[in-house]
């Protein structure tokens, strides 16, 4: 009897302790999209996890996908990568009211600003990016009416120069929209 009572108490306690963790885990939404290069073919994958306070993503670029070196990545306003190789249909960076581009700018950053990442000499890269200025839904949302895009630039972002930190042309793009 004592053994049964102890086991029952342990199971109830374990369930009660696990419930908050499960509730938190259920608030996390995931999303995955192909990253296309200037020739319009897939060169990698964007995997995003969104919660109530921001978005964390993994950019994975296949071997030969990018030139070796530093690259800027930004979230852009429109989920449209159909105009390779320019990717201008994605429009500009997602902005925050009154903010300027760049983490180092006194009035920055914009909501779409992300850290630079490095591609090896073989053109492959893997990077984790994060922002607390955007969420999947809400006022500053990646999944708004026209979606958004992740755009990878040819060079690194200096996080000060307007409007794109001197990052250069667009080399890759991923559409972020719900199907």
Automatic annotation (TrEMBL):
Cofactor, how bound (note): Binds 1 copper ion per subunit.
Enzyme class: oxidoreductase
UniProt xrefs under PROSITE patterns: SOD_CU_ZN_1 (PS00087), SOD_CU_ZN_2 (PS00332)
Keyword Oxidoreductase belongs to the record: yes
EC number: 1.15.1.1
Cleaved signal peptide residues: 1-23
Pfam family, one: Sod_Cu
Record keywords: Copper, Metal-binding, Oxidoreductase, Signal, Zinc
Cofactor(s), names only, from the UniProt record: Cu cation; Zn(2+)
Catalytic activity: 2 superoxide + 2 H(+) = H2O2 + O2
GO molecular function terms listed in the Swiss-Prot or TrEMBL record: copper ion binding; superoxide dismutase activity
Isomerase among keywords: no
InterPro entries: SOD-like_Cu/Zn_dom_sf, SOD_Cu/Zn_/chaperone, SOD_Cu/Zn_BS, SOD_Cu_Zn_dom
Family of the protein in this entry: Belongs to the Cu-Zn superoxide dismutase family.
Name of protein: Superoxide dismutase [Cu-Zn]
